[in-house]
Known about the structure:
Elements: H1 2-108, H2 114-141
Helix pairs in contact: 1-2
Amino acid sequence: MIIEICLIVIAVALCMLVLLITIAFITINRFAKQINIILSNVHNQLEQTRSDAQDIIQNTKKIATEIKTNINSSKSLIDNTNQLFKSLNHTVSSLQQISDSISRNSTSNKNSTSTNVKQDEGISEVVNWASTTLDIWKKFKT
């Protein structure tokens, strides 16, 4: 009788062990499914991130190309502006020389009457134009 009770206790213990192992496997299976779902979501997010990163890289390349084009256009604009400044500088220098020449001639020819009055009007007009041109050039330069 004791042997039978021991066998019953052993059988019940084995049944409990099988039941606990089954519960553990079911729990592990659920955990594995949840991990699979999480990893699938992470994979999808990584794919989306990769796709977004590629789009950003392509947009960055386009922007860099546009910036390079604009820089080249700006360089030609700066070159043209520099040429304009050189031309204006030359014009101002020429006007200054003309003004100096006219001023010298007017002081040496002060004794003429009607011709002198016309020359003085012409001189003052040239000086005014030169002065105005210089003012415009200085404002444009700054």
